[in-house]
Amino acid sequence: MISHDETPHGRHLGVTDVIMMVVQRIIGSGIFATPAMIYRDVGGSPFLFFLVWLIAGYSSYAGIMCFSELGSIIPRSGGLKVFLSIIYNKPFMLINVVFGIFIVIFGSIIANVIIFGEYFLYAVGIDDGPVMESYSKPIGFAFLFLTILLLLCSTKFVIKVQTVTGFLKIILLLCVSLMGLSVLILPSSITKIDNNLHLKDFFNVKTNVTIASFTSAILKGIFSFNGWHTTHNVLGEIKDPINTMKIAAPLSILLINICYLLINLTYLIVIPSDELLEINEMVGLVLFEKFFGNSFGKIILSSLIAFSVGGNIITVLYHISRMNQEIFREGFMPFSKFFASNYPFNSPLTSMLIPFFITSIFLIIPSNSNIFNYAINLESYPTQIFFGLACFGILILRKRNPENDHHIKASYLDISFMVLFSIFMFLGPLIQSSKDSDSDSSLPNYAITSLLILFLCMLYWLFMFKLLPWFFNYSLKQETITLHDGMTVHQWEKSPNETNSAYEPLV
Question: What is 15-471's CATH number?
């Protein structure tokens, strides 16, 4: 096991907290939006529909097991940032700088904030277009600001609230599942709804299915499981992290998979296949309208989505602040000591202000949805690359230190799946057709833009650690200092080459 720093935040997260954290992070609006699109992509086949969800569910399991093995070797907060810096330590500080700058720049939660504002208005019965456009962003901003205040006042209190609301979210999703089961058990004279799922039609394919459409369905399913990795951003705050993750990692994914399976079963039971193939809006809305009527059903679903997304915002902001703080502790970015500090509330206030500021800019500046989607793609594309590098890094660490006992061990199937999927996600956008209907011709290919940004981050590293020291004839030495709030950070000292000819990383 690689040595690690204890953080002043302390270890205060137990098994239940971690499970609910994963639940809050993964379950948002995706399960109420993507199933109809997936059903259409697989040609209306129930068998292929559930196969897609099984593959997507396995992807989340494979990912969290890979990261749990890395976390058992490197039990520190920071997640990907820490894993990559230990695995790919040559050239020195390259991966730290490239990953760190990119994550800090793109650490916004704009999409969730806007979604929360929209569905909050739906939940209170407001669906007028101009009103929605005027008030959805301010409401999302107000909730974001409230979340920051709560995290500043008491992180432990927010964690407990998150745990309780995570339980409520699971209960609500199971209640949604009971809607479908009631149609199976009770006669239609009581439910007023017919059962639309029949064994004789289970393997039937009603419309054309291609490899491309099936692949698209898998990607949509995986999107609904997005967020499994973020628990490792706060690994340093988990009690007995190895044993806790042994229990919490598989159990949380199993719990989510069961909920998703039951809800998708409910969709197929309640909504006729022909209707499901034609749905372009949120399939969850159709489900609730069939049970509760158009107006009341919309209010119930909107309340559930607003509740789910609100919990997601709290969890994401908590994780981003910890990730940013770990990046600034490396000391290679301007004002690192300021942004790494816990002063004055014993919370990473300054690190939280970065995603708050970036998100606020998007909320204030008038922009269309294409810009938002483009920004999300700019963040998501490199993240998949980093996922693949981290999971492949497991094999590197096993070969580098074969005698080490990995307390949590991912299977080779888990590792292979994650690496191959990352390669697919890397190549796909680079070769996509320019005629793709989902693309905006006014914007450059987001994959190329992402790679250009990564290249600029590499240039920053090249100038700071290679060109400037060579040109001005000095070397950089990394020193550890302790701030007055107890947080340890690194700073880089310049020394003439004749007195210090090398610099060494501190592990």
Answer: 1.20.1740.10
